[in-house]
Amino acid sequence: MRTIRHCCSRLSIKYISVILILSVLLAGCAGKRDNVQQEIRIAVLMYDDYDTFVNSMTKHMTKWCRQQERKDGIRITLDIVGAKKSQLTQNDQAQKFISGGYDVLCVNLVDRTDATVIIDKAMASDTPVIFFNREPVEEDLLRWDKLYYVGAIARQSGELQAKIIIDALSDPEKYDTIDVNHNGTIQYVILEGEAGHQDDIVRTNVCTSELINAGFSLEKLGDEYANWDRDQARTKMCELIDRYPFQIEMVIANNDDMALGAIDAIEEKDYILDPFVVGINGTEDALEAIRTMKLDGSVYNDSKGQAENIMEMAYALGKGEAIPPTVELTFDKYVFRPYSIITYDNVQKYLENE
Fold this sequence. Notes:
Blueprint: H1 2-35, E1 39-46, H2 52-72, E2 75-82, H3 87-99, E3 104-107, H4 116-125, E4 129-132, H5 138-141, E5 147-151, H6 154-169, H7 172-178, E6 186-192, H8 198-213, E7 218-225, H9 230-243, E8 250-253, H10 256-268, E9 276-278, H11 284-291, E10 298-300, H12 303-318, E11 334-336, E12 340-342, H13 347-353
Parallel strand pairs: 1-2, 1-3, 3-4, 4-5, 5-11, 6-7, 6-8, 8-9
Antiparallel strand pairs: 10-12
């Protein structure tokens, strides 16, 4: 019996040894999988599918992710959805991505004053959120240290849009072509983006204030909301042309799509005047319109730089790392990219950048 017990004991020791060796080997394999992150999942939630500027940003986001995948060998899943201008839809989309285990949400809010639901869901699941283009109210952004905003300072866009106009009006030759009736007052219309949108309000007020402060006499003929949309702007501008068949000397638009919509209407109506038209964003179509001298100027909103910053942040957060030093944070929350002026004189540089 001693012999049998001794054999069994030896067999048990061998069996335990084999299990330990296999455990070490399996642990080593598991460790390798853990050390090399297989995938980072990022969701991008847009307020609408048809916004030209935001679509430009998502194009650059996609390009950045593909380049980063080739560089690091880590798979990046980038899911992009639009909410069709419904905050309830966007809230549901956020819940779906959070439930699906996505690492980071990048959110272009439908309603910048109504971020509470998304923030609550994100905090409960420890999912970082990078808001972009539509800035949440400060109180919401301060609720948690994993909430960020990437965009630009709206006031600067209004100031630079005014500078384009001021530079033109300061040139006596150009002034004469704008002040067609030579009465010393520029008669203008404004195409605004969206009621309550922070960029809309600031761009409009700052631009007109800068012009008045520069000493120019202005007369506002009309002020219409066109919701950032080219077709809506064309319709609104057609109505303004019917209302003022000989008076409109300038069109100030809160974005390029509306500026281009105004130009569409001017061409469609074969308007007797050739109004000075300015926009904001520097979209591809706007750059081409400036190059062909249909659009007089725009203010470049750095969609590429913003998109790349968003993805740099999302990639780092998805890996559980700190925001990289290449991203310049203000108050540990905000990333603001500077605006710049685009006119016929420098448009080629921006075209090449696209």
